[in-house]
Write a structure and sequence with these properties.
Length: 178
C-alpha cells in the first residue's frame, strides 16, 4: 500500500492549482482546514470506513456538516475524494496544500521551543532575526519545553537551531568525554 503522503500529493497539487488560478489560496486553506477537522472526528471516521454507506452518502455528510462553508468547487472535491475512498487523506492533503501555499507566498514555518514563556516582543525579535537569516517571511509557532532548561530551539523545515542550555550542556559533556 502506498504512503498517505504519496497518495495525497496529486489531490493537494490539483487543489492548489485550482485555488491559485482563482486567486483563492486563503479561502481554500480555510475550507481544507474545516474539511480536515471534520475528517478527524471519530464518528465521521467511522462513517467513512462503513462499507454500508455509499460515496454519495459520505460526501453528503461532509457537505451537510460544513453547510455554507464550502463553495461549489470544494463540494465537488469532496465528492471526488469520496468516490475514490480518499476522504481520510484530508489532513495530509491540507498539510501538503499549506506547504505549497507557503512556498508560493515565500513563507517558512518555524517551530520555536523555549524553556520559558516568551513575550510578544521577544517573539517578534526572534521572527525578525529568522526572516533576515532565511530571506523569507516566518510564521512562528511558539511552545514551552521545560526540558530545554534555558534558551530556545528553532526548527525551520529540516534545519534545527538549538541554542538551549540543554544542548550546550550536552556539547560540553561530549567534549569532556573526548
Amino acid at each position: 500500500m502506498a504512503e498517505p503522503s504519496t497518495v495525497a500529493r496529486p489531490y493537494a497539487e490539483a487543489v492548489f492549482k485550482l485555488a491559485d488560478g482563482a486567486g483563492a489560496l486563503a479561502k481554500w486553506a480555510e475550507m481544507l482546514a474545516a474539511l480536515s477537522a471534520v475528517s478527524s472526528n471519530e464518528r465521521v471516521r467511522e462513517a467513512i470506513a462503513d462499507p454500508k454507506l455509499g460515496a454519495a452518502q459520505v460526501a453528503g455528510l461532509f457537505i451537510s456538516v460544513l453547510a455554507g462553508k464550502l463553495n461549489a468547487d470544494a463540494e465537488n472535491f469532496v465528492r471526488v475524494l469520496a468516490d475514490n475512498r480518499r476522504l481520510e487523506l484530508l489532513p495530509e492533503i491540507r498539510r501538503q496544500y499549506d506547504a505549497l501555499r507557503n512556498e508560493r507566498e515565500g513563507v517558512v514555518e518555524a517551530e520555536v521551543l523555549s524553556a520559558f514563556e516568551l513575550s510578544d516582543v521577544q517573539v517578534a525579535d526572534l521572527v525578525a532575526r529568522l526572516e533576515k537569516k532565511t530571506g523569507r517571511r516566518v510564521k512562528a509557532k511558539v511552545a514551552v519545553d521545560k526540558d530545554l532548561i534555558g534558551g530556545v530551539k528553532v526548527v525551520l523545515g529540516d534545519k534545527v537551531i538549538d541554542a538551549s542550555a540543554r544542548a550546550q550542556l550536552g556539547a560540553l559533556e561530549a567534549a569532556l568525554k573526548a
